[in-house]
Design goal:
Blueprint: H1 3-21, H2 25-32, H3 36-49, H4 69-81, H5 87-96, H6 103-112, H7 132-146, H8 150-158, H9 179-188, H10 195-212, H11 215-232, H12 235-248, H13 255-271, H14 275-288, H15 295-307, H16 311-322, H17 327-343, H18 347-360, H19 366-378, H20 382-395, H21 402-418, H22 422-439, H23 442-451, H24 460-463, H25 466-480, H26 483-496, H27 499-505, H28 511-519, H29 527-530, E1 541-545, E2 551-554, E3 557-559, H30 565-578, E4 584-586, H31 587-594, H32 601-616, E5 623-628, E6 631-636, E7 640-643, H33 644-659, H34 663-675, H35 688-714, H36 718-731, H37 736-740
Parallel strand pairs: 1-7
Antiparallel strand pairs: 1-2, 2-3, 4-6, 5-6
Helix pairs in contact: 2-3, 7-8, 9-10, 10-11, 11-12, 11-13, 12-13, 13-14, 13-15, 15-16, 16-17, 17-18, 17-19, 18-19, 19-20, 20-21, 20-33, 21-22, 22-23, 23-25, 25-26, 26-27, 33-34, 35-36
């Protein structure tokens, strides 16, 4: 129901009440809390034309004393030319030109053009108010758009002094809009189109405004440009634009604009390791908060603390905001809180936030996947952690969510290192280092360099950054073998509340921990970390390669064992469902899948387990059947399994991440992923579960093959496309789309 229908029903209700109860007009107006004159007018309309009279709409009429369009335009241009101009100064300039206009008159004109009097709840939005004049035009525009007459629709909107925030703008092509309306349209489209494309449109628009002398419009476009670069993490471009912003902000005293100016200066300084400048800007932002009592600014302060790795302050602010935020914004706050809490190892609190966020948000974003990955890590579920980190990369556009890409890549490298997969860890760190170097994110570059033990200049100023200093101390402990560096790192991390930096990065510097374990001394690490393969050599790591004939490795050494088809199917089933310590499978589900016709399935299960333990040299106590309440379960008591299928998905995620702007690197990752496929998976495995999983994997591979072949054709690499098509058809023989794609 639209607002007109609601108002009509409201009028009927009030008139019926007035006629039925026989009360005076003033009593009726008091009862419904509506002005007496309004009720009087509705009663008069009813008496004159009956119920139809109540359908009357308000007709916009230009005020009799409103300034002429010529003078309005002149007053508007004064502010456009000089954004720092005050009303008093503008009045003096106009007086010299023989134009007498009141302070209120100037303010009204500037407000009409959205040059002042804007809502401070979101300083990036420069929309005009929804006035009777503007909404009358908007209703006409909707009719023109409905009839496909975009030219008239664009002309009407472009002639408005300012445009309210109306979604109809999105439907009108740019060619029919003025530059001001193009900016309004871009404001609505924030995060709806890829950031690189969005940024280019803003940059071109700002240059047009500057050429026309519309400096206020250029300033607001510049703010949106900088916000976009901030989201992209493109610090190199940000560095170039900040001096221009400083120049344009000269003399401007508006608190909202000053706040976001300080915020971007500080956030950029933080990325460039200038913590002193960052904290100075944070202090300036906080000084402005009493003038800006809106959730937007609290959220910005929380983000600022997050940039500075002050998760405690970040968590406190986000918890305060939960009390006032509603709807989708509440969901966004919850997912940010989930990331911060899970990163600190507060798993139970984080999981509650994840569940609540899912109710407030449509879909699952990269932040929630990262939070789930953190939760899995702190529970020692490394394969699950890798799965969610790959999902984070999948959901993070390479040029849009660089922060999440960096964090997910670093954590993925840490997990690989914890599983003694040195080669994959270093490969990931190198890729991440190159990406961070490209965008000028020095803080992230240094982090990668320390983990890889690269010789990179490391200044005293940079050593003052807590999390970098902790990793620096860990590296020195590894290099020198001196436990004093390690103990200093642990002590400093506890003082600063950065224990998570130790937990996620200690796998790159295992020597001091191993020395302390040999001496029987306290390492200062949680028990779940000490149980991981890199520190506990008794825990075996098995790798199953089933994207083709089954191949098994134990601690990187191939096991020469030939398994019966059912034993192979059972092993893959176990690995994919309970591939980490603590995971379990109800025994009944195994019976139903593998021995649903057997009279003694328990004997068959015992026989399979006996053969697998013997062939794979698995200690008997590491896989056991036990009771969980009244349910018998098969439990993984202490083995880590990895698979080539998991690696395939992770490489595809990284390939997709690079596809937008780096085809050469993306192609390399795709080819590495496809090299893992050696034949048809689950061949001669006919149980129901294996058949379902096989089909799922086949469909997934088919989709990835098709995507890659199309990209090859887009880049005119026909020979490579044919080679991949040939390989794909050897495995997926009945795909018509694959056959006809070239």
């Amino acid at each position: 129901m639209n607002k007109t229908d609601e108002l009509f029903k409201k009028r009927i209700k009030i008139i019926e009440y007035y006629l039925k109860n026989g009360e005076a007009l003033r009593q009726t107006s008091r009862f419904f809390k509506i002005p007496y004159q309004t009720v009087h007018r509705w009663v008069r309309w009813y008496k004159e034309n009956g119920i139809d009279g109540l359908k009357r709409k308000r007709i916009y009429k230009r005020a009799w004393n409103r300034t002429s369009d010529e003078i309005e335009h002149k007053v508007m241009f004064l502010k456009e030319k000089d954004p720092s101009l005050t009303i008093k100064k503008a009045r003096e300039i106009l007086k010299k030109d023989g134009i007498e206009i009141s302070v209120k008159g100037i303010w009204n004109i500037w407000k009409r053009y959205a040059l002042t009097g804007r809502s401070r709840e979101n300083p990036y939005q420069f929309f005009g108010e929804k006035t009777a004049e503007s909404m009358k035009i908007v209703s006409e525009v909707k009719e023109y758009v409905k009839n496909g007459d975009y030219e008239k629709a664009g002309l009407l909107l472009s002639n408005l002094p300012s445009c309210p925030k109306v979604m109809i703008l999105k439907k009108i092509p740019d060619e029919y809009l003025s530059d001001r309306r193009k900016f309004d349209k871009l404001s609505i489209l924030f995060r709806e189109i890829p950031f690189p494309e969005y940024y280019e449109k803003l940059k071109n628009l700002r240059k047009k405004f500057e050429k026309k002398g519309l400096n206020y419009s250029a300033l607001k476009t510049l703010f949106l440009e900088i916000l976009t670069l901030h989201w992209m993490g493109n610090i190199r471009e940000l560095e170039k634009l900040l001096p221009l912003l400083k120049k344009k902000m000269s003399g401007i005293k508006e608190p909202a604009l000053k706040f976001i100016f300080y915020f971007h200066i500080g956030a950029t300084a933080s990325f460039l390791c200038d913590e002193e400048k960052a904290y100075k800007m944070l202090s300036k932002c906080k000084e402005l908060l009493p003038l800006l009592p809106y959730p937007f600014y609290e959220r910005a302060i929380a983000s600022f603390h997050s940039h500075l790795r002050e998760c405690g302050e970040n968590i406190n602010i986000l918890k305060r905001l939960l009390k006032v935020e509603k709807g989708e914004m509440r969901g966004i706050i919850l997912q940010k809180l989930a990331v911060s809490l899970s990163g600190k190892g507060r798993v139970d609190e984080a999981k509650k936030c994840i569940r609540k966020a899912e109710k407030n948000l449509v879909g699952s974003g990269s932040a929630l996947s990262l939070a789930r990955a953190n939760c899995a890590f702190f529970r020692g579920n490394l394969e699950e952690c890798l799965h969610y980190l790959a999902e984070t990369l999948d959901l993070s556009d390479r040029l849009q969510y660089l922060h999440y890409i960096n964090v997910a890549s670093l954590k993925m490298a840490s997990v690989y290192k914890a599983l003694n997969k040195e080669e994959q860890a270093i490969e990931l760190l190198n890729q991440n280092y190159e990406l961070m170097e490209k965008f000028g994110l020095r803080k992230y570059m240094l982090y990668c360099a320390l983990l890889m033990n690269k010789n990179i200049p490391f200044t005293n100023k940079e050593k003052k950054i807590p999390h970098l200093y902790i990793v620096f101390l860990l590296r020195e402990a590894q290099r020198t073998g001196k436990l004093s560096f390690y103990k200093k790192a642990i002590k400093f991390a506890k003082q600063k509340g950065h224990e998570d930096v130790i937990y996620f990065n200690i796998f790159f510097f295992p020597l001091p921990v191993i020395k302390l374990l040999e001496k029987g001394e306290d390492t200062g690490l949680p028990h779940f970390i000490l149980k991981l393969p890199i520190f506990n050599k008794k825990i075996p790591v098995y790798t199953l390669k089933f994207l083709g004939p089954l191949v098994i490795y134990k601690n990187h050494k191939r096991i020469k064992a030939k398994l019966y088809p059912k034993d192979a199917a059972f092993l893959i089933h176990f690995v994919l469902r309970a591939g980490e310590p603590g995971k379990e499978i109800p025994v009944k589900s195994l019976y139903n899948n593998f021995w649903y016709n057997s009279l003694k399935p328990s004997r068959s299960l015992s026989a399979v387990l006996f053969r697998l333990k013997k062939l794979l040299k698995i200690p008997g106590h590491l896989i056991k059947i036990s009771w969980r309440g009244r349910v018998r379960v098969l439990i993984n008591k202490g083995i880590y399994f990895t698979t080539d299928y998991s690696e395939f998905k992770q490489r595809i995620s990284r390939a997709n991440l690079k596809r937008a702007d780096d085809w050469k690197s993306s192609k390399k990752e795709f080819l590495k992923a496809f090299s893992l496929i050696r034949g048809e998976p689950f061949k001669k495995m006919y149980d129901r579960w294996s058949e379902d999983v096989r089909l799922g994997i086949i469909f997934e591979m088919e989709k990835k093959f098709i995507e890659f072949i199309k990209e090859c054709l887009n880049h005119h690499e026909v020979y490579l496309a044919r080679q991949i098509q040939k390989k794909a058809l050897q495995i997926i023989k009945y795909s018509e789309e694959l056959k006809n794609i070239i």
